[in-house]
Each structure stands twice: as structure tokens, then as C-alpha cells.
Amino acid sequence: MRWGKQRRIERERERERERGKWSKGVRERERERERERERGKWSKGVRERERERMKERERNKERRKK
């Protein structure tokens, strides 16, 4: 893992912590990221996967509303 990437991940975690967002969702997302990193999937394009995750989150919100 490159240092810049590592630092960015740490900064992201810190930001979430400061927002008081250490809810189940955040921890779950952390676990998901760890799993992806272990699979070596960070080469796919992080932004692309983030977009997919956002779409999935929207779908979940819609499901909850119904």
C-alpha cells in the first residue's frame, strides 16, 4: 500500500470519528473496505466503487421508506 493512500484512509476515518459517525454503518463500511483491500481490489478505481456504494445506500434508503 502506498503511503499517500494510507494517509488518506486515516484522514477519512478521523473525519468520520469527528462527525460522531461511529455508528454501525461506519464500522460496517470499515470492514467492507478492509475486505476489499485484502482482496487487492483497490486497483479497480476507488471512486468508481464509492459511486457504487452511494447508489447502494440510496437504494437502501428507498427500501426503508416503503
Automatic annotation (TrEMBL):
Residues 7-66 have a biased composition (Basic and acidic residues). This is Uncharacterized protein. It comes from Octopus bimaculoides. It comes from the Eukaryota. Residues 1-66 are annotated as: Disordered.
